[in-house]
Amino acid sequence: MNDLSIALLAAGLPDKRQVAVSFSRAAASYDSVAELQRAVGHELLARLPQDLNPQRWLDLGSGTGYFSRELGQRYAHSQGLALDIAQGMLAYARPLGGAQHFIAGDAESLPLQSNSCDVIFSSLALQWCADFRGVLSEARRVLKPGGVLAFASLCVGTLHELRDSWQAVDGQVHVNRFREFHAYQQLCADSGLQVLSLHNQPHVLHYPQVRQLTHELKALGAHNLNPGRPEGLTGRARIQGLVAAYEAYRQPLGLPATYQVVYGILEKTR
C-alpha cells in the first residue's frame, strides 16, 4: 500500500484512481439511470447568475457530457472545455459534442492556464476529491476576475438509509463516505472566493425494492468505492438482511434514498 492509499484510508475517502476506473466502466450505462444527476445539474444551471456571458466555460467532472451539451447550447458563442478524470467518460462524450475540447485531468490539479475561464460548472463530481481546499484553490487560479464557480456536491447524510441498513447487518463499510456540510462552509469561506450562496438541500428518490437502488449505483459507477469496503461477493444471507432492514424505511412511494446535495456559487472578485 502506497502513501496515497494510506492517507485516503485514514481519511475514509475513495481513491480517485479507482473512481476513474469505475466511472470509465459505467460510461455506456450512466445516462440510463442518471435521474438524480440530471435533476441536480439542472438545478445548478438555474442557480447560475443570469447575466453571465462567458468567453470560455469549463465543465469540471463532465462525465458523459450531458451538461457540456447544455452549457454549449446556453453559451453558444463561447468556447467550452469538458474535463474529467475518467478516460472512458471522455471517449463516450467526445463524439456527442457540446464542448470544443475534451481534456483528461484532475480537479485538484487542473491542466489549464491561470485566468483562463469565466465559468466553472461542476455537478456531482467534487465529492470524490479528498482535497477540496485544493479544488477551490485551483478554481480560483483558473478563473478570470469576475469569474464564477458553480458546484453541486454531496455531504454526510447521503444514502443514510442504505448505510444504516447495512450497519444493522454486518457493521462494515458499504456506502460511500462524504464530508460534512460545515467542512464545505469552512473551506469555501477560506478559499479567497466570494461565497454568493452555499446551502444543503435533500433530494429523495424512491425505489420499489432495494435491488433497483443497488443496480442503479453500480450502473452509475457510484457503488461502494471506500477504503475498508468488504472484498468479494456479498453473501445471500447478508443481502436478505439488508432487504429486511431497509423495509423499515418504506413509504407509500417506495423505499427512500436520500441524497444530501450541497449547492455553491462562488465568485472570484480579484
From TrEMBL:
Belongs to the methyltransferase superfamily. The gene is bioC. GO terms for molecular function: carboxyl-O-methyltransferase activity; malonyl-CoA methyltransferase activity; S-adenosylmethionine-dependent methyltransferase activity. This is Malonyl-[acyl-carrier protein] O-methyltransferase. The keyword Hydrolase does not apply. Pfam families: Methyltransf_11. One of its GO terms (biological process) is methylation. SUPFAM superfamilies: S-adenosyl-L-methionine-dependent methyltransferases.
